[in-house]
Fold:
Amino acid sequence: MAKDPSKTEKATPRRRQKAREEGQVLKSQDVPISATLFFTAVFLYFYLPYLYTVLKSLFSYAFSEAYSLELSLLTKTFFFKLFLLLLPIFLSLVVVGILSNAVQFGFLFSLKPLIPKLDNVNPIKGLGRVFSLKSLFEALKSSLKLSVAVAVGYFTVKYALSGFYSFPLLPLSSQVELLVKWLVILFFTFGLLSIPIAAVDFLYRRWEYEESLKMSKQEIKEERKQYEGHPLIKSAIRKRQREIAMRRMMAEVPKADVVITNPTHYAVALKYERGKMHAPKVVAKGVDKVALKIKEIALKNGVPVEEKPELARALYSSCDVGDYIPEEFYRVVAKILARIYRRRSSL
Structure:
C-alpha cells in the first residue's frame, strides 16, 4: 500500500512510547541469526574438545556397565549425563538470542502483537504487501542468503573432499578432530558472512520503522491537545491556581508588620521577625484592585498602612512574593518599622 503523503513529521516521544507498548519496535531477525551463527562457531571451537572427551568416557561407561546394571537405570543415567553435557550449549544459544534482541530494542514483554488484526486478513492490503518495497527487499535478501549458502557449501565441501580418500585411514580421534574442524569452519564462515547481511537488514528495518511511526501535522496537534489538555481546560486550571495563590497571599496580609501603598495603585505588605530573618520579606503585593484589597484587609486587622508612593512602586518592581527586600531599601524600611514599633510600645 502507498504511504500516506500527509505523514511527513518525525514521531513524537509519546508516539514512540505508545508503539513500544503495543509491541511495535525496531527489530531485525537477521541480527540474532548472525549472532547465533558466530557465537556457535566460537563456542564449538572451545567446547567440542571437552565434549568429545566427556562423550567418549560416557559411552565407555555405558558399554562397560551394560551387563552389570539394569537397562532402564543405565538408559536414565546415560541420557541424564548427556542432557547435562548439552545443557550449556542450549542455554548459551538462548542467552545469545535474548541479548541480540535486547541490544536492538531493550527488554520488552507484550502480548499485543499476538492479538489478531482485521487488517492482516484484508485481501486488498495483503495484495499491496506482496508488491511493496518490503517484499522486494525480502526477495533480494533471500536471494543473497541462498547465494552465500551455496558458495559456502561448495567451497567447504570442496575443501573437505580434498582429504576424503585418506579420511577412513585416520585414527578415530583424528577423524573426530577433522570433523570438528570442518564444522567450526562452516559455522564461522556462515557467521562471518551473515554480519553484513544483518547490518543491511538492520539499517533497512530502522528506516522502515521510522517511516511507519511518522505522523501528520494534524496528528501532532491532536496529540498535543490530549497531552497538554484543551485550551479552555488549561485556562480554567490556571485561573483556579491564581485564585488559590491569591487567597494564600491575602491570608498573609494580617500577619504583616506594615503595608506600603501608592496610595491606591500599589500595595506591598512586609513582615520582619527579628532573629529569624536577615531582612524584611514581601508577603503580599498587588496593583489596582488587588492593592485596594490588601489595604482593606490590613486596615481591618490593624496592620499599619504607610503611604510611600516611590517606595511602593520600587518594592513592587524589584521583589516577588516571598523575596527579601534588596539592601538598598534597608535604611528607609528600617525607619518605617522603627516608627511603627515605637508607636506600638507607647500604646
